[in-house]
Fold ATP synthase epsilon chain.
Amino acid sequence: MSTSRQLRLVLVTPEKTLLDEPVRAIRVPLYDGEIGIFPGHAPLVGRLGYGKMVVETGGQQTQYFVDGGFLQVNGDTASVLTNRALPQKDVDSADAAEKLQEAVHRVTHTDVEDDARQRDQQRYRGMANFAKLPR
């Protein structure tokens, strides 16, 4: 394990690399719970859930909504690969609540459609909850 005091965070979406910088720590939503990553963390690969990612740099915290994906920790680098990463200011609570209601009431006819509906419910429930957090 490394004793470095900085963790390199690489935050990547399909469109671009949003962050590639040293941070103090991160907290990410995994599919089955939340995890905190600090410098020197053991190697890890995890499936991301939908929800709040917190990036700590010095005395500041920045929050992002992450839309599933994967986390890899190797050495002092944490790579977050996600479909979407939105800063809190860019998440609209009313829009997320509306999309959640659409997903809840969507009629499905196949297992594939039902799986997509459940994913959308998780996504927009997480987004609506994230938008309500204090800024």
About this structure: Residues 111-131 form the longest helix (21 residues).
